[in-house]
Design goal:
Length: 335
């Protein structure tokens, strides 16, 4: 019977991250489809069908890939129904404000099925990472550059280890997108590709951001940097779906239950110090000389009715200003 040997297959789930399973395995079946770089095999005695990449495969014993021909595939990794049986590299996920790693379980799963190892990093003051306030609802940071240094170090060590010589990619959302944008500017060769989902290039503060910066700075100078911002509240187990118009109710309720079950995941409100640092991050990432450093191809997504970050014209700052500025590097970006 024809034989194909693969160097790597699907990444296997390891806690909140993923890693490649190096244990050799065998899959027998019939070839149902084949292309220049892939072969699809249906199991001999079941309806399971998997598509394997042949780019790094040893096909010396295959003698051609004829449809209907029996084949034995030697591979490493964990096969999942519908998964691509090839290891494509790693994805580092940078989450948003008041979020935590477990929220991205579904997204992690999709990346795993696509053949990526996944590493989710919890920013300072979130989840199980270090925090400097006793109230579990509050998010505090003394310097936004700590966020950037943390994410870059995580990617350079854990991320590259999971990528195992393959491409290292970045997926980030909201606050994590603002942090990710700064990492792309200060470490232009760290990631091969990046996706910025509703990045916090500029936060919505309910007033002009220059004024919010002045007020937050004044509160910090008065010694109130660790106090909750006016108009926000602590986490409560009660849920009002009216606050989540257009969202998936099943996902919202699941997310809420994660917070209820684990006090580490109840971050819910900003402190004045966090607002001050978020606005400093916003100014820093929009500097033209910083944007000029971006070398990574970026795909930028926006929400049409975003109430947390600015979707503003270039003159007002926000995502579009960063996009236009970074586009000067002649890299492909899309919104």
């Amino acid at each position: 019977m024809k034989s194909i040997k693969f160097l790597a297959a699907v990444a296997a789930l390891c806690g909140l991250a993923a890693c490649a399973d190096k244990t050799p395995k065998t899959f027998e079946g019939f070839i149902t489809d084949a292309s220049m770089n892939t072969v699809t095999v249906k199991a001999l005695t079941a309806d399971e069908t998997y598509t394997f990449s042949t780019m790094d495969a040893d096909k010396s014993e295959a003698e051609g890939l004829l449809l209907g021909a029996p084949v034995v595939v030697d591979y490493t990794g964990k096969l999942e129904d519908g998964a691509a049986a090839t290891f494509r590299g790693a994805v580092v996920i940078s989450h948003g404000f008041t979020e935590f790693a477990a929220k991205y379980a579904e997204m992690v799963w999709y990346f795993l099925l696509a053949g990526y190892s996944v590493c989710v990093f919890e920013h300072r003051g979130h989840g199980y990472s270090a925090r400097d306030v006793d109230n579990p609802s509050l998010v505090w940071i003394d310097d936004w550059r700590r966020y950037v240094a943390d994410l870059a170090k995580f990617a350079e060590t854990v991320g590259k280890d999971y990528a195992d010589g393959r491409p290292l990619n970045l997926y980030c959302h909201s606050m994590g997108g603002g942090i990710g944008a700064s990492v792309l500017e200060t470490h232009p060769t760290l990631f091969d590709k990046a996706v910025l989902s509703c990045p916090m290039i500029a936060p919505v503060t309910g007033m002009p951001n220059w004024l919010a910066s002045v007020l937050a700075g004044a509160m910090c100078r008065l010694g109130l940097g660790r106090h909750m911002v006016f108009g926000q509240s602590e986490f409560t187990s009660e849920l009002d779906m009216a606050d989540y118009e257009g969202a998936s109710e099943a996902r919202v309720r699941w997310f809420q239950q994660q917070r209820i079950d684990d006090p580490h995941q109840r971050t819910y409100a900003a402190t004045f110090a966090w607002v001050r640092q978020a606005l400093r991050l916003s100014r820093a990432v929009q500097r033209p000389e910083a944007c000029d450093n971006v070398e990574t191809p970026v795909l930028l997504f926006q929400a049409g009715r975003d109430v947390w970050v600015l979707n503003e014209p270039v003159r007002a700052g926000g995502q579009l200003r960063w996009r236009e500025c970074a586009r000067g590097t002649h890299r492909e970006l899309a919104a």
